Amino acid sequence: MVLDWIAQLTLLVAIISVFGIVLGKINIKGFTLGIGGVLFGGIIISHFVNSFELVDLNAPAFESARHYLQEFGLILFVYAIGNSVGPSFFASLKASGAKLISVALIVIIGGFLVTFAIFELTDVTLPEILGVYSGAVTNTPALGAANQMISDVAVSAPNEVKDLLLNKAALDEFLAGNPDPVALSARLLQTTSTLGEGYAVAYPFGILGIFITLILMKIIFKVDISQAGKAFEKSKIAAKKGIVAINVRVTNSHFDGKMISELPRMDTQTISCSRMKRGSSLMVPHHDDVVRVDDILHLVGAPGALENIAADLGEKVEISLSTKGTDMTSSRVIVTNSKVMGKKLGELGLDSKYDVVVSRFTRTDVELVPDDTITLQFGDIINVVGLKDAVEGVARELGDSHQKLQQVYPLPLFLGIVLGVILGSIAIPVPGIPAALKLGIAGGPLVMAIILSRFGSSLTFGKVHWFMPRSANMAIKEVGIVLFLACVGLKAGQTFFASVASAQGLMWMFYGVLITLVPLMIAAFVAMFVLKVNYLSMCGAISGACTDPPALAYSNALYSSPEATSLGYATVYPFTMFMRIMSPQIFVVLAMLIHC
User: Fold this and answer.
1) Quick one: how far is CA 197 from the chain centroid?
2) Between β-strands 357-363 and 381-387, what pairing exists: parallel, antiparallel or unpaired?
3) pTM for this model (two decimals)
4) 119-140 pLDDT, tens digit each
């Protein structure tokens, strides 16, 4: 049976994906390759296929298709990443996570500077060092961004940057044949294969280096994990984000006869009153309802603000104001009706139309105090308190369709990709650089997905559903990264083992160790000694700064509750992922500014 090149490529990518995923799941004392196993699977299979000449991996049609599949996988992957981190990306930059963001910045900037120093002080080429850098920081999107940037530079400005892409001996040998510009561009484009080789060489210690750093910090600072966990639990209430609820009995006679809207801090949109109990009667409160002494108010808001208003009004009480057993009910209603999307919450007049109270508002897992100026988006969740019929009326108006919530809308997905590719293709000329600066197909879709997932509904007046179910987004992300890594491994495997066995390969390993360990040790030491970050939070932040799930899994297992490590990881992950994808492009720009 003879297969055409399309069938050959499809079969190889599928085999590599299966083998690589299984390889990545092998656990040796907590160490796994994770999704990186697909890259190594591609390298191994490519090596044998090439050695036994089973498939002509360098045939023009085969190579073109492999390259396209690789880039399309990258687009899917980075767009899915942007879609998932977008809603929390801007929140992660706020001052509440300043210390953890600072730790991540030290890791990111430190790794960048060590990499650039190695590039300047040795004869390593741009593709080689960027591949090593991507592996040493265990960040596959960085590898994709580097691959795209090197490809653009090789094609658009070969004469000015050829010295950066090929080492002197290889370049002199090739130029001796007086190649034409097309042949030179093609040769320079082949240097992208060393990206995958460098990544694979540096990746294993990139993972081990994180474990080494966390263990050394525990030994050096004599950390008691149990005490670190208890310290975090004591501090988390004061540092807690989001909103909580308390019940307050009015005992201050000064507020007797005052309307709810006249109570202190109730006009700041940081606190809402969702229930009021007078005697044995539970009622839905409105802004113009009058408060009496001994009334019990169910208040929702930020912890600090609630403590202040409780002190003003009277005292906190542990009396239940549950709607159970009463005519009232509380329900979480999901916004899925396109007719209300793009409208402000205050425009709907739910409180007056249905005699209900909107007590909480949730968007992308973040709880907020309801604000009349909030523009509704698909997937928003609104907590409504009121009589059963009234709450059902609100649900009908807002949609509350769980089926729609799980439905995947392909139009916004591909429209977002179109806009992302266009954004990534916009060339920005920079004086002194032969190749114009572009976000590329790694940066463009990423930035566009971040923007659309956070502001897309407002920008399109609620007419387009930019919301994507988490399961669908995860599937797109996993398929994208598997395709990308399988194709990268398929290309890199042809020369990988020869490179590793050489002195050059050993030097790549050494460079990778420096890029991994130096910034991690500095960042961890600053976090513990200077910033006084909790050890568990530091473990999470370091894992997030390396976007490394195995390190997070190790950190989560340190203490009975993974909250501290998970919060540290989630705080820095969106910012880190964005910076890692942009860093290879910044690296190439700086290299060209200095050398061209």
Assistant:
1) 26
2) antiparallel
3) 0.63
4) 999 988 888 899 999 989 888 7
